[in-house]
Design brief:
This protein is mainly alpha-helical. The chain contains 14 helices and 4 strands.
């Protein structure tokens, strides 16, 4: 048999397996849901939830024991901000705490009876701020509003006491040291712009792994002896052909999902988009390939269709933490950082955030790109080993039945 005939036979088998796998994906509602519906629908749901970017009008309760002009001015200033809404007044701290315990309010501003007296004497006045720490965004709104308004009120009192003769002197008295606050990479300071890019890339890996795993579980339930491949089809006659045929099918679906998640969704919800087109392509290519071969390798653990959901749903939240988005990478223990190297999402998320939210160039994400290609090669080899084992099982079963 000539080498050209072997190449033609190899390509024919790969295309046949690709066609059969594509038919199975289209006919299987569960696989179709994970590979198509989940990448299309989940990003829209998450983005709509976080579309406001930050928390506004957080309800607080005020305990004003001072009943002074200064305390009322402080309360009015806080209520005028977009982050806090003074919604309730309480006679004492116990009544205010009852509102917090019932989740009616998220914070308490307590003005003691000597609040204005101490300030007029030239002493330090105190405003006690109690925050519900169960939601960090609400805590940030309640606490930072109180800090900003206390500094503004203090600056106004200092100006009155200074006896300045010009507005320039008043400005220096109010703020002797000017601080320019520049929000880098996230100008709006939004929670969605921070977290959603990581979720989008993680969702691509999880959707591919779920779809591939469910297809593998379906194949094991359908074929005899728990095999991933049929033992009576002459086209399934080599591990490499099987792996490449299936990878071609999932690669076509993954390419569409990757383009949608990385370009369409951020544009629809005005998330930062600083990535150059070619840089984004060179990042998504190894990440998608590595995710596909990762899913094919993990599919060896799937005995039944439902198993893959238990596996991937269980690891979804830990994988998000291991990317270093919700928790600093430098604070993750070394052992867990080693575990994170096993998953393409770790480096795919980091590379995508750097190029899309921070405007990094290809050279600046080159370490992540190299690791993704290494993962793609490693999981390709492992997938071939898994399917070679299944190929041998199929041949033994076929010889036994003969």
């Amino acid at each position: 048999m000539s080498i050209f005939h072997k190449i033609r036979e190899h390509i024919t088998d790969v295309l046949y397996i690709w066609r059969q796998e594509m038919k199975q994906v289209i006919r299987d509602e569960g696989v179709l849901m994970f590979l198509v519906v989940v990448p299309l629908g989940y990003p829209l749901l998450y983005s709509w939830i976080y579309n406001n970017e930050s928390v506004h009008e957080v309800p607080v309760v005020v305990v004003d024991q001072s009943h002074s002009a200064l305390s009322r001015q402080f309360i009015r200033d806080c209520d005028a901000t977009p982050d806090v809404e003074v919604k309730y007044y309480a006679e004492d701290l116990n009544e205010a705490q009852s509102l917090i315990s019932r989740q009616i309010a998220k914070g308490i501003y307590l003005f003691p009876s000597d609040f204005a007296t101490n300030i007029m004497r030239g002493e330090q006045g105190t405003v006690s701020v109690y925050c519900d720490m169960s939601l960090m965004l609400a805590y940030k709104a309640v606490y930072q509003t109180a800090v900003v308004e206390s500094m503004r009120l203090g600056a106004g009192l200092n100006i009155k006491k200074a006896g300045n003769f010009s507005k320039r002197e008043d400005a220096i008295t109010a703020q002797p040291l000017a601080v320019d606050d520049v929000a880098m990479f996230n100008p709006s300071g939004g929670y969605g712009s921070c977290v959603l890019p990581a979720v989008l890339m993680l969702l691509l890996q999880q959707a591919l792994a779920l779809g591939i795993g469910m297809a593998a579980g379906t194949a094991r339930e359908r074929h005899r002896n728990g095999q991933l491949i049929p033992d009576d089809d002459p086209h399934y006659r080599g591990a490499y052909r099987i792996v490449w045929g299936k990878a071609l099918c999932y690669g076509m679906i993954g390419a569409v999902a990757a383009a949608y998640l990385s370009m369409a969704v951020p544009r629809m919800f005005s998330f930062p988009q600083l990535a150059d087109g070619w840089t984004l392509l060179l990042m998504l290519l190894p990440y998608t390939i590595a995710s596909i071969f990762f899913g094919m390798t993990v599919s060896c653990l799937v005995r039944y269709r439902e198993n893959v959901m238990l596996i991937m749903v269980f690891v979804s939240v830990p994988l998000l933490f291991l990317t270093g988005v919700s928790w600093p990478q430098s604070s993750i223990p070394g052992a867990w950082q080693g575990v994170s190297w096993l998953f393409p999402s770790t480096f795919g998320v980091r590379a995508f955030i750097r190029i899309n939210s921070m405007g990094a160039s290809f050279g600046q994400i080159l370490p992540e790109i190299r690791i993704l290609w290494i993962q793609a090669a490693a999981y390709l080899g492992m997938a071939c080993l898994v399917y070679r084992h299944q190929f041998r099982l199929a041949r033994k079963w076929s010889n036994r039945t003969e």
